[in-house]
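Annotated sample (chain length 361).
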Amino acid sequence: MAKITLDNLAHSYLSHPKSEDDFALKELNHDWVDGEAYALLGASGCGKSTLLNIISGLLEPSQGRILFDDQDVTHAPTAERNIAQVFQFPVVYDTMTVRDNLAFPLRNRGEDASYVASRVNEIAKMIGMEAELDRKARGLTADAKQKISLGRGMVREDVNALLFDEPLTVIDPHMKWELRTQLKSLHHEFGHTMIYVTHDQTEALTFADKVVVMYDGRVVQIGTPQELFERPAHTFVGYFIGSPGMNLFDAQIDGQTALINGVKMPLGAGFAPAGGRTQVGVRPEFIRLSDAENGLPAKILRVEDVGRHKIVRLDVGGTQASAIAGEGDEIPSGTSRVTFDLKGVNVYADDWRVSPQGEAA
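Output written by the structure step:
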């Protein structure tokens, strides 16, 4: 297990990058705590796998350093970093049995045979492959092979970090839930530092202690699922986390009110003047349909009943928005007004969250 430090880290796939736009991974300075589980979350191409491969040693950064427990490993090969990595698609030895695939990392390090047998049986039970231990990997399905890859990554107890690069892509949905649960259980039992790359917010939020949200090659927020939901630090976080994502309304901010489409809306807190494009962000859970005269005029476009609740799609002065209503709530037809639950209001200037006056940092 190790604390992982990213010191002035950046990477470009170009030989001579000339501007920040030439970097696939823009400058990062972060300490990742020893023994915590992190998820790298973001859309395809945002730099998640690039960062993971730098941590593992498969890629050397264009600038900066990476440290394990304050030891510089920037130029150290993968084998010297004492990490285990599981890739998106299965990497197994087809001619070996499942048992031998799982045992390989331990035998390669000269572990005692009785310990190897015990650990292999433990991992096989964890991934649900006890009955296939003596089968050759060649004849197994893609999801079974990926379970072997996961098991081989988890079989060692002494690693500095376990790295997972979208490892559940080929796993069927029910098994995904089981394996995520097992990975979380493994983390609680052994306290490995774990880093899990995914574009699936459900995977990230259910697996990780802290979610690292990436956008356009940079980390825009590191936080708990609750922090990401309640106080998105960037409009992308608000959009990407939640279903539907956060609503954004162009606004002029004046102290404790916002002028949206010519209507003054309370913000519930005071905000200093901010330059650039200013917006009010409100998640659908905090949008209220109302007949109040001081609400924002809105046209109801359609209602989607998803069983547990209803998603009301709205046109608010030309801005597409969503509200969530209870399953038993009566939805007015045609035109209505919307108000905000003030505990769910955030203000943004040029996409970055503005802290209300008096809020603790």
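Annotation: The two ends are 30 Å apart (CA to CA).
Annotation: Helices lie at 48-56, 98-107, 113-126, 142-154, 173-190, 201-207, 225-230, 235-240.
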